[in-house]
Amino acid sequence: MPGLVSQSTFTCTRCLRATRPLNGVSILHKNAPRRFSPALPLRREDSSSNVATDSEDQASIEAQILKQCSKNASESKAVEEEQGAMSRRLFEATEDAILEGGRAGRKAVEEAGFSEQLKAILLERVEASNFRTENASALTEASLPLNIGRGSRDIATAQAWTGHEATEDTVLRMLDDARKPLNPGLRGSGKIPSPIVDLRLKKQAKQRPGQRLANARDTTSIYAISKDSQMSEEEREEMRRELKERFTPGARAMPNSIRGLAALANERIEDAIARGQFKNIPRGKAIERDSRADNPFIDTTEYIMNKMIQRQDIVPPWIEKQQELVKTAHAFRARLRNDWKRHAARTIASRGGTLQEQMSTAALYAQSEAVHNPKKRAIEQISVPTNLTDDTVMAKIVQEAPSSMSHGDPTVQISVETKEDETGIAKAAPLQADRQSPAEPTSLPPPFRIPSWEEAEQSYLKLAIADLNSKTRSYNLMAPGLAKKPYFSLERELKSCYADVAPQLAAAIRERATRPARELVEKIGHRPGGIMERVGSNDVPVHDSKRPLYGFKEFWNDLFGEKQA
């Protein structure tokens, strides 16, 4: 039979354009794309029926849209005819206030007293505008025709430009710009090449005797261990698992790239973490950090210099000078107290009387000393101002004894003598004694003093005090302000010596009287025996030896014999 030709109506573009209503297209879709007939001249009957159905549905939808648009247009024209220019202007201002003002704009519209119909129209427009704004991409995609490509569709549905580039777009642009694209001629095809499989039989590599011997030894040892009767079933199962992992195909295949090695290392590390091998790992020694390194109140240069000095075991010069000064002052005070205690004990003991009378006399002198010259604490801890270190500074502490029992604690008057004049400083606070001084009875003697001893020791004491003051001056010139020391005074040192030694006089007298007398000359008495026995020692050590005796003959040979080379 000759070929059958399916007869179907064909509508060209000109006829389709002529059949459409002019007003409807101009009102709804001013920028609508051109629509061609989707039906071909030669199509089957079923396709023609489907096309007819689609065209009928589309025609009905367009008719409904045109009807709704004409209705809205008529309503809007009626409203415009009723309102004047001022009303339309106020209506537009109100609409702008609602759209752009937010809650404040809506509240202002509600308080203005508009009619309910106008409020409903305005709110409806606001909601419609918000809906279109929130779902702009979805509405745009729904209104696109089906014949638009993927690229055009993505561009139409993309987010509108807001003036700022999104983070995702920035990262993508940076990744694209990181590598210069290849020229079109150098670009390869997008097809993944299939691996070439060589099905030819290959000759196995010949093993060396050493490799064969090593493999045979490993196989023998594994077989012997697996057949060991002392192994439990769990140990055998674990060995089978290890052998299975070892001889699994591809188990020993090593990657040929850095990424493959990194992936293999990460896999093994994760397996070890899962097995718990990274738990309770002994930590290293903690880093010792000095908290003063970040202290904003410490100068960085000073901190670094101090660290260098500590690391190299170096002390500042004023520290060495301080040690020398303290050592010299300690030696001077120890000698002064020792000499005064020995001389005072001899003087009291030379007056005669029993030991108890001498000790009671020393105790009375100690009580009198505690009343008139009590011991004070930290007499030296007086900081010297920096501006006075250039002059010869002498600090005197004068103790004023209370005139009667009603007086309270003694006050201390401090005076500073300079080269120009003598300036008196305000009275200091009362110094606390080591123990409360007892009340002064009428029977207490004056404090024990020996003017002759002071005159005899005056030259030595003045020289020692001058040496201490010179060392103190050199120390104060190098030391910082808070570490400076006061100068020494002979009167203050003597009073401190008397106050420290007075309680020790009774014990010194008792020790002097009770210790055994020391024999200055050895006395040789009568001993039995002759002269040789008296001269010789009583105990004579005797040394016995088995070596040959050394006599006169051996001495003669050594003296005049031939010298052996």
From TrEMBL:
Family matches, as Pfam families: DJC28_CD
Region ranges (Disordered): 38-57
Domain DnaJ homologue subfamily C member 28 conserved: 264-333
Name by which UniProt lists this protein: DnaJ homologue subfamily C member 28 conserved domain-containing protein
Organism: Monilinia vaccinii-corymbosi
The organism's taxonomic lineage, starting at the top: Eukaryota, Fungi, Dikarya, Ascomycota, Pezizomycotina
